[in-house]
Design goal:
single chain; mainly alpha; DNA polymerase, domain 1
Length: 181
């Protein structure tokens, strides 16, 4: 008897949009038979969730999910931006869409220029200016002669000498003499 957990992965999410007897559907089903045993459960769930977001957009706009045109994907990116989706989330959606096209042996619309421009435009709108990291001295004007508070890397054996409770041993008193830093 099949459980609900296993039934969830019986059919790849994007195969439902393809005609049942098409070569694309056969390609997807053959791939899915192997993939669902190889990929982790969370990956399979993520693909399903990503596809559900994309399919809902396509249904609302009366657009074809697979094979999609670059204009469809660019419009999807714009819609995600209007919903305040983060660029990393949108890239994950695009990865799932690209996978669906690759498995069905269709050309990948996510690599086309309109899609790249839409994604670039979105990241320009959403991105926040990065702050420059402070140097070890905290003054922001070059290197300091003070050792960093947490200069050591954790090792499997031996203490971490950068903890506030343990003084620096004599051989580590000059942090500039340590090779590799």
């Amino acid at each position: 008897m099949k459980t609900a957990k296993n039934a969830l992965f019986e059919v790849v999410p994007w195969a439902q949009t393809l005609p049942a007897d098409s070569s694309a559907a056969l390609n997807v089903r053959a791939w899915w038979a192997s993939a669902r045993t190889v990929y982790p459960r969370n990956t399979l769930l993520a693909w399903g969730c990503d596809w559900a977001v994309y399919a809902a957009f396509c249904d609302a706009q009366s657009l074809l999910t697979v094979p999609a045109s670059p204009a469809t994907i660019a419009a999807f990116i714009q819609a995600c931006g209007e919903q305040s989706k983060k660029p990393a989330t949108i890239r994950r959606y695009l990865s799932t869409i690209a996978l669906a096209h690759r498995v069905a042996k269709f050309s990948n619309p996510c690599v086309e220029e309109p899609v790249r421009l839409a994604l670039k435009g979105l990241t320009n709108e959403v991105s926040v200016a990065q702050r420059q990291a402070k140097d070890w001295g905290g003054s922001g004007s070059g290197n300091s002669s003070k050792p960093p508070e947490k200069a050591c890397r954790r090792r499997a054996s031996g203490p971490c000498y950068a903890s506030p409770m343990t003084p620096w041993p004599d051989e580590l008193s000059s942090w500039r003499s340590i090779e590799g830093i």
